Structure to design on (703 residues):
């Protein structure tokens, strides 16, 4: 025991100083060691009366400890928001009805959130490659543990396929309904809707007044430039001379010829069953109305007439000036027009009482009236061949068209049908052989 | 004074004779040359006249479309000229087309052409040969049968199409009537029951040869008019012209825009 009271006072003084240092300085200088002041939030729920969050360390700290007096208690880690799932099938809209599946070489489907912070949309296609495309599946995740996304969002569809003019959702997946590419979600709602069944509709090119697509039968094709003619996934026959094959040139018995052009875009379809297709091809134009007129003038007998009524006998006829045709021909003929030709009604269509005639018309430009659905003949235009414009009426050419430029403003009310259908009829035009043909000569002199 | 001897007079005479000989030689030479040139000019004139006469008969025979046509039928009052044109159908087991330009076609007749009808369809098999002016040929064949039904073949020795089916196979060609063809279809093509074969040339200008495999005649492809005219001095010219039967422009069966 301590015998000297003075020594006891001194020792008490030093003990006091030691406890003072321990009590006041160690917690401040060495906070890691000061367990009483700082506690992990995960271990120690903060009591608003005693503890607060130290912003730099995300720890709970006793208010009685020295340090930041303005700290607040941290929120607990939130529960992850549910993931939104959007699924549906892909449908082709021909303007009248919709059929399942589309055909595209470059289909893109995206979901775009209204505010993308912390939101991750992912879309997949079924099948992932190849055609036809059947369905899609998108998921949208809201990461509210790292970021702070808004739980109430508008999600917008952004889909496209170059083979179609538009892709969209409709309310209640109604075929032909108005496009509505947005759905509203709220993943923080008490009972959030997290699954959506939304089919995507793809309009064929002719739907809504655009340009339709074309089909040939028994013909070959030679493009002056690129051929851009996307054939839909669902094809309906134009008439009894057509079929439902997804070909540019239908090929019932090996009748389809070569398709040559600088570039060829038929969507996912092919030229014909044999698929004789030549791209990067530059056509050499040799036969024009002007050159044929020169040949006729030098080698053949022809008759100059004022209008079509003068072509009453088989032969070659010449008209100097523009011509509007509003009646059927009464004879086989080759007509050369130094001007433009307009055909204002169905032309040369066989009836029960009159047979169609073999006719070839060569002119600078040839225009078909907007309401003309049928023309029978060989039409050769040095300039443009204009089909006229009609959003609900196709045009059938029985014969052939050869022109520098095709202006096609036709589409069908049902665009699974071609809007321009050209069918060769060789027999009828063999009749014109003596008139339209030329001879080749090979001379030797001794 | 200089005294001449008698034998010196012969020297002068000799000189005179030599001068005369030279003059005569030059005269004869000039005369001969002139005569030759005159004769040559006359021959050329007659040749040109006979050629013109032959071409005139040929044109007249083509226009009148008759089997034979004589110079006298022209009523040109060409004294001393005679001439005649004969027109014959061109037949044989081999037919070689002119050079067909790219994107043009040649109409090969597989039946007798009666303008405008057809008869006696061909029943044989043929090889088809190809010789491009440059590069590699590709040829589309369009057949029109006697019922006016179409069918087609495609020849593409260098695979200028991708993924095409039912393309006729080919092999290296050979010489045919003096033309060295680079390619030939491997198997004979049966062409019975057809009246026309339209041979459309793609890619490069190409000359085509058609050979009947058994050496039988192919159907006539046109007519050869041979016109010969001569003067009384037996200068003659012969002009032969092959005129094909009507050729159908490719625009008939090829949609283009």
């Amino acid at each position: 025991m301590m015998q000297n009271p003075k020594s006891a006072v001194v020792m008490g003084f030093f003990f006091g100083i030691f406890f003072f240092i321990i009590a006041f300085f160690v917690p401040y200088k060495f906070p890691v060691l000061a367990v009483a002041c700082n506690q992990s939030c995960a271990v120690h729920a903060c009591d608003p009366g005693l503890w607060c969050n130290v912003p730099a360390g995300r720890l709970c700290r006793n208010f009685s400890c020295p340090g930041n007096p303005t700290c607040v208690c941290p929120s607990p880690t939130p529960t992850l928001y549910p993931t939104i799932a959007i699924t549906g099938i892909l449908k082709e809209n021909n303007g009248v009805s919709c059929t399942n599946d589309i055909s595209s070489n470059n289909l893109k489907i995206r979901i775009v959130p209204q505010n993308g912070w912390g939101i991750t949309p992912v879309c997949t296609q079924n099948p992932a490659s190849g055609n036809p495309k059947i369905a899609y599946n998108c998921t949208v995740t809201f990461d509210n543990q790292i970021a702070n996304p808004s739980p109430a969002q508008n999600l917008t569809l952004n889909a496209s396929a170059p083979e179609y003019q538009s892709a969209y959702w409709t309310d209640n997946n109604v075929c032909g309904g108005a496009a509505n590419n947005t759905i509203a979600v709220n993943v923080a709602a008490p009972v959030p809707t997290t699954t959506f069944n939304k089919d995507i509709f793809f309009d064929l090119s002719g739907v809504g007044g655009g340009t339709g697509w074309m089909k040939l039968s028994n013909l070959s094709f030679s493009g002056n430039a690129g051929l851009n003619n996307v054939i839909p996934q669902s094809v309906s026959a134009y008439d009894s001379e057509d079929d439902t094959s997804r070909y540019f040139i239908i090929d019932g018995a090996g009748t389809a010829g070569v398709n040559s052009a600088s570039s060829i875009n038929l969507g996912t379809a092919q030229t014909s069953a044999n698929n004789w297709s030549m791209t990067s091809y530059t056509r050499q134009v040799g036969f024009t109305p002007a050159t044929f007129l020169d040949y006729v003038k030098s080698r053949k007998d022809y008759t100059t007439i004022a209008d079509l009524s003068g072509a009453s006998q088989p032969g070659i006829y010449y008209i100097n000036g523009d011509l509007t045709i509003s009646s059927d021909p009464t004879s086989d003929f080759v007509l050369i027009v130094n001007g433009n030709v307009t055909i204002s009604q169905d032309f040369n269509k066989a009836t029960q009482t009159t047979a169609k005639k073999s006719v070839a018309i060569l002119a600078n430009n040839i225009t078909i009236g907007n309401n003309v659905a049928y023309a029978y003949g060989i039409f050769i235009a040095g300039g443009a061949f204009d089909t006229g414009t009609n959003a609900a009426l196709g045009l059938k050419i029985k014969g052939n068209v050869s022109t520098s430029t095709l202006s096609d403003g036709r589409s069908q009310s049902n665009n699974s049908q071609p809007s321009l259908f050209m069918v060769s009829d060789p027999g009828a035009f063999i009749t014109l052989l003596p008139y339209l043909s030329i001879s080749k000569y090979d001379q030797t002199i001794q | 004074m200089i005294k001449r001897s008698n034998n010196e007079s012969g020297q002068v005479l000799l000189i005179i004779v030599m001068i005369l000989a030279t003059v005569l030689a030059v005269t004869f030479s000039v005369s001969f040359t002139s005569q030759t040139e005159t004769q040559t000019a006359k021959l050329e004139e007659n040749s040109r006249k006979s050629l013109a006469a032959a071409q005139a008969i040929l044109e007249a025979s083509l226009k009148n479309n008759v089997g034979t046509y004589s110079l006298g039928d022209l009523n040109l009052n060409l004294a001393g000229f005679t001439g005649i044109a004969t027109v014959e159908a061109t037949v044989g087991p081999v037919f070689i087309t002119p050079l067909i330009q790219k994107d043009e076609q040649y109409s090969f007749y597989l039946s007798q052409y009666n303008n405008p009808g057809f008869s006696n369809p061909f029943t044989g098999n043929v090889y088809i040969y190809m010789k491009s002016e440059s590069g590699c040929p590709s040829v589309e064949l369009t057949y029109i049968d006697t019922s006016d039904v179409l069918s087609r073949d495609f020849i593409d020795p260098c695979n200028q199409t991708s993924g095409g089916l039912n393309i006729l196979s080919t092999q290296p060609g050979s010489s045919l009537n003096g033309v060295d063809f680079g390619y030939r279809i491997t198997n004979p093509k049966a062409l019975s029951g057809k009246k026309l074969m339209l041979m459309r040339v793609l890619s490069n200008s190409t000359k085509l040869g058609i050979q009947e495999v058994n050496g039988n005649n192919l159907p006539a492809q046109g007519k050869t008019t041979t016109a010969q005219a001569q003067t009384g001095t037996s200068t003659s010219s012969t002009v032969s012209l092959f005129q094909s039967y009507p050729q159908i422009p490719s625009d008939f069966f090829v949609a283009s825009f």
